[in-house]
From TrEMBL:
It comes from Lacinutrix iliipiscaria. The keyword Ubl conjugation does not apply. Keywords: Molybdenum, Oxidoreductase. Residues 35-142 form the Aldehyde oxidase/xanthine dehydrogenase a/b hammerhead domain. This is Xanthine dehydrogenase molybdopterin binding subunit. It comes from the Bacteria. Pfam families: Ald_Xan_dh_C (PF01315), MoCoBD_1 (PF02738), MoCoBD_2 (PF20256). SMART domains: Ald_Xan_dh_C. InterPro entries: Ald_Oxase/Xan_DH_a/b (IPR000674), Ald_Oxase/Xan_DH_a/b_sf (IPR036856), Ald_Oxase/xanthine_DH-like (IPR016208), AldOxase/xan_DH_MoCoBD1 (IPR008274), AldOxase/xan_DH_MoCoBD2 (IPR046867), AldOxase/xan_DH_Mopterin-bd_sf (IPR037165). Signal peptide: none annotated.
């Protein structure tokens, strides 16, 4: 009954919207979301007799394991078995880029929350009770929690990376102004609503199927096979959707799936492992905190002639994705500015925190925060507005990025000027000046934040995807790709593509679960590239089918192939409606034994990068935009509100305006949260203090901007973007950086003695201290 109604609701909604899907389409998942019908790992119908698992993790950040006593836990009624590294038939290794991360600790622990064992029991409750009965004795070793400390002690994940353009040393000689300083940006908790988890089921012949909440089904499959010592074809990964990933499930969904599979492998029984929120917060890595230093040199006319930055990335206790994230920091170190002389260096510092990982922006935001800080510092010292420096240095057509890519179809100046004109920046600034002149207890601040974000996995070989499209006998369409739906609306976009190519209503299309047996050897859904890569593959597969079907129609209607087109479920010849319907056409094709299935492979053309030279053309294109952030600071309390964020954003030609607007709004809120309120805290022993939502504040309805306006920049779109609709997932997060500087400007308006500090997040405590600093 329920199913029927929901389908009807979906149909009504779809019919009610205009024919133009680009204008009106919503994320189709939203209908099942609000009805509570969307399926997540915890909703999978589990088999009778399924066991439940809980992870036993390290209560110390660094130490030697002297002794563990599992006997009391094992004796508890309902406990089935406890698994440790000794039970691993293959390799105790889950590192993706560098093999430096065990699934279970062996003799040493390297972070608080590091998995040591898996307790499997009849119920989760029993497994948790058993966990409390485990006795462990760890001999303390020195704990490193900050990147600087790691650098001093020479503790690194890998060799440093460095990009350079021009001749920075000599360029400083031509500078009229040179400023140096330090910055800090803190980590960020992903706080996906669905915590990490997996459900493993034994199939015949030792094969295992795993339902996982992962952005990277192939990474899970490969790692499970490696740990179990079996080949990949024995392991099937299935993903319906994620309740959010935000990068936190690109690599870090893997261990839980591997643990569940390990238990299933030994017990030949289904095993479910879902972390509760506390376990998830403690055991998983976050956005990388960065401690950075910069040196910026400018001419009298405010041109940035030289820029140097050293980024200390707090990588945590293992590499995870840190090397790739570090690389993206360098790619985005100059944001949307052209700087002719650049030297940047990043060190991935090994500490005793949980391995930090991908988070929306993937190191880019950390890089951009530093150059925006350098500009703010320079502006304050020279006595100009930061926006004068920003504006004087915006990227132009054919400018070179520090990594050698020549900027094309640049929208840095167009988005900047549009934002200034459309929102009348002079009037906004005048209003703020007036407000600040007439108000003592409240001050307003404004900041502009331009962005330029590179689209593609920076690791060129990862930029590929495949799609498998079936047309069923009744004309309905099933699509499988590597894309993982995590709330970003990629499934809806894939359906739109098929519906558009075949000119059928979108409810005739369906996205299958993301499954490694249907689409194999995939890159994770990440780098904002999922819709581009999988969409292009889907488009190719659909177009091949269309060509085949046109041939069938041409034979049937005795008309040339190039006169055939499909429109609204009918075949047209030379624009004239024929008697042949879409379903007739499919039936004819079947009778003629024409294949109604197609598999297509897409690999982004043009991109390349040479790591030995640190030069190349790694990005298919860049996404641009400019935000104006306005805040009001309560100077008695140190609290603040965001009056408005006004954005001109480069969507290219958006294929799904509602979804893309949702991505801009969500990313903006997440960026503001990172910059202003989300404060991760570890104590010096490496224990996470901000381990609940009572101590970790994320933006809520009351703290998001009162007013968000997003104007699409008119452009012709980009050929390498799917249907010219540019990637949108990550770039707008970086508009949130403007929030930091808007607050800073409000503080300056209150306290002329305020000495600019670049230490994010700008929490109300820090604002208060700054307001009253002498
Ligand atoms: N939006 C929602 N609702 N949930 C998410 O988990 N992840 C972000 C972004 N937007 C995310 C999201 C991240 S980190 C990335 S890389 C992209 O979506 C991934 O999807 P895309 O490649 O389809 O843009
Ligand atoms: N972005 C996101 N995820 C990634 C990347 C990237 O550039 N490279 C590897 N994983
Ligand atoms: Mo997004 S950080 O590339 O998953």
């Amino acid at each position: 009954m329920l199913k029927d109604t929901s389908n009807n609701i979906l149909k009504t909604k779809l019919n009610a919207v205009s024919k133009d899907l680009k204008e009106s389409i919503k994320n189709l998942d939203s209908y099942t979301h609000v009805r509570g019908e969307s399926l997540y790992v915890d909703d999978v119908n589990i088999r009778q007799g399924t066991f439940h698992a809980v992870v036993f993790d390290s209560p110390k950040a660094h130490g030697k394991i002297k002794h563990i006593d599992y006997s009391k836990a094992e004796a508890l009624e309902g406990v089935i078995r406890i698994f440790t590294y000794k039970d691993i038939p293959g390799k105790n290794e889950i590192g993706g880029i560098i093999p430096d991360e065990p699934l279970f600790a062996e003799n040493e622990v390297h972070f608080w929350g590091m998995p040591i064992a898996l307790i499997v029991a009849e119920t989760e409750f029993i497994a948790r009770k058993a966990r409390d009965l485990i006795d462990i004795n760890i001999e303390d070793l020195p704990v490193i929690t900050t990147a600087k400390e790691a650098k001093t002690k020479g503790s690194f994940i890998n060799a440093p990376r460095s990009f350079s353009l021009g001749d920075t040393e000599n360029a400083y000689k031509d500078c009229d102004f040179i400023f140096e300083g330090e910055t800090f940006s803190n980590g960020q908790e992903h706080l996906y609503i669905e915590a990490q988890g997996a459900y493993a089921e034994p199939l015949e012949n030792g094969n295992i199927k795993i339902t996982s909440s992962t952005q990277g089904p192939t990474a899970v499959q490969k790692t499970v096979a490696q740990v179990l010592g079996v080949s990949m074809h024995k392991i099937e990964i299935d993903v319906t959707r994620l309740g959010g990933g935000f990068g936190g499930k690109e690599d870090q969904a893997t261990p839980w799936a591997v643990m569940a599979a390990l238990a299933t492998h030994h017990l030949n029984q289904s095993v479910k492992l879902i972390l509760n929120r506390h376990d998830d917060l403690r055991m998983t890595g976050k956005r990388h905190p960065y401690e950075s230093s910069y040196k910026i040199g400018l001419s009298k006319d405010l041109k940035i002639l030289a820029y140097e930055a050293e980024f200390l990335q707090n990588s945590g206790a293992a590499a995870d994705l840190s090397p790739a994230i570090a690389e993206r920091t360098l790619f985005h170190a100059t944001n949307s500015y052209y700087v002719p002389n650049v030297t940047t260096k990043v060190l991935s510092c090994k500490t005793n925190l949980p391995p930090n990982t991908a988070f929306r922006g993937f190191g880019g935001p950390q890089g951009m925060f530093v150059i925006e800080s350098a500009i703010a510092k320079a502006a304050s010292e020279i006595g100009v507005s930061p926006r004068q420096i920003q504006e004087a240095n915006l990227l132009d057509e054919n400018d070179t990025f520090s990594y050698g890519q020549i900027a094309k179809q640049v929208e840095a100046k167009t988005s900047w000027n549009s934002a200034k004109n459309i929102f009348n920046i002079e009037a906004l600034e005048r209003d703020i000046e007036n407000f600040n002149r007439t108000n003592k207890a409240f001050k307003k601040g404004l900041a502009l934040m331009p962005i330029a974000f590179g689209i593609s996995f920076t690791n060129t070989p990862m930029n590929h995807a495949r799609a498998l499209v079936h047309i069923y006998l009744d004309g309905s369409i099933g699509i499988s790709t590597a894309a993982v739906e995590m709330g970003q609306g990629v499934n809806t976009k894939m359906m739109q593509i098929a519906a558009e190519v075949f000119s059928v209503p979108i409810e005739k299309t369906k996205i299958e679960t993301t499954n490694t047996t249907r689409v194999a050897n995939t890159s994770p859904s990440a780098a904002s590239s999922t819709a581009d890569l999988n969409g292009k593959a889907t488009l190719m597969a659909c177009n091949s089918l269309l060509e085949r079907l046109k041939k069938v129609a041409s034979e049937d209607l005795n008309a040339p192939e190039d006169s055939i087109s499909l429109k609204d479920e009918c075949v047209y010849t030379n624009g004239e409606k024929s008697k042949l319907s879409w379903t007739d056409l499919i039936n004819k094709a079947m009778l003629k034994r024409v294949a109604l299935t197609e598999n297509a492979h897409y690999a982004t053309p043009e991109i390349h990068f040479d790591k030995t030279k640190e030069k190349g053309h790694p990005f298919a294109y860049h996404v641009y935009g400019t935000a104006i952030v306005i805040t009001t600071v309560d100077c008695t309390r140190g609290t603040y509100e965001f009056d408005s964020v006004k954005i001109v954003h480069d969507y290219g030609k958006s294929m799904s305006k509602g979804i893309d607007l949702g991505q801009v709004e969500g990313a903006l809120a997440q960026g503001i949260g990172w910059m202003t309120m989300e404060e991760i805290a570890y104590n010096k022993d490496g224990r996470l203090l901000s381990n609940a939502l009572s101590t970790y504040k994320i933006p809520d309805l009351f703290s998001v901007p009162k007013n968000v306006e997003v104007i699409p920049l008119e452009t012709k779109g980009h050929e390498l973007a799917i249907l010219k609709s540019k990637a949108v997932g990550e770039p707008p997060l970086m508009y949130g950086i403007g929030a930091y500087f808007a607050i800073q400007n409000a503080i300056k308006a209150y306290n002329p003695n305020y000495n600019l500090k670049f230490h994010a997040p700008m929490t109300p405590e820090k604002v208060l201290m700054s307001l009253y600093q002498n």
